[in-house]
Amino acid sequence: MADWKTSFSPCVGEFLEAMVQFIEKSEGNKYIVWITDIKYDESLRKLMIQIKRNIDANVPCAMNYVRPKALVAVPLNQLYYRGEVLENNAQSQQAIVRLIDYGNVLHLPYKRLYAPLRIMQMVSAYAIWVMLPDYCDSLEIEAVINIRITDQYVPNGIYNAEHKRSPLLLSLEILDKGSYLSLVKCFPDDHNALLRFSSLSNAFDNYVDAILKSSQIMNFPNNIVPGEGSFVAASTLKGWRRARLLGFYKKGNKFLVYALDEGVIM
């Protein structure tokens, strides 16, 4: 049964599109960060709204409740966040609290801590702790990155991950150059976007799909996994697509591919 002491942990080898919530440490190209899987964004937003609706803002925690490993509600920016008490000082009535869905560590007075609601206890923590040992780009809070979990450090619970770079990051200024480009995705920094040539119509997609369903296609032998960067034909939920292979999740027997004609990762 899920509870707040566990996190929505990915499987080793799994790919995920993640948002950087907190940068705990950076040394050159090595980063230790707290991330959330963006597929949980809506669930997290709804949880925070539910906490705000039901918590009694006039009744802070009892002082004897504030202790290490206790779950508390923390008011910030007109919302309430779930936090775990890491340390407390009864004399100064101050506590060090980590926001379990974001990773941030805050120093707060007892009067800003609230007893948890039942719903806060029943939902797993959304943030996970990740090490990116060789991240070559600049990294900022709320950056969206594609990563693969490679292993987990025990006992500290840090996941080791590798960054899978997304191709075709272009300046938004190029949108002014003509109507032959359409926007696929805008990234959180508002300076980059993923674009698609509009001339690639559905008719072309259907043509490619028909060709790749024909007898002309050649499958890889079952015991051979094509290398990263290979040009492949990928069978997706939207049909066959021309794609570039980005990675392979062995346990789930799944591939991460970049659909060349759509500008999306699948």
From TrEMBL:
Protein name (Swiss-Prot/TrEMBL): Tudor domain-containing protein
One Pfam family assigned to this protein is TUDOR
InterPro entries per record? Tudor
Q: Which organism is it from?
A: Glossina austeni (Savannah tsetse fly)
What positions does the domain Tudor occupy? Answer: 19-132
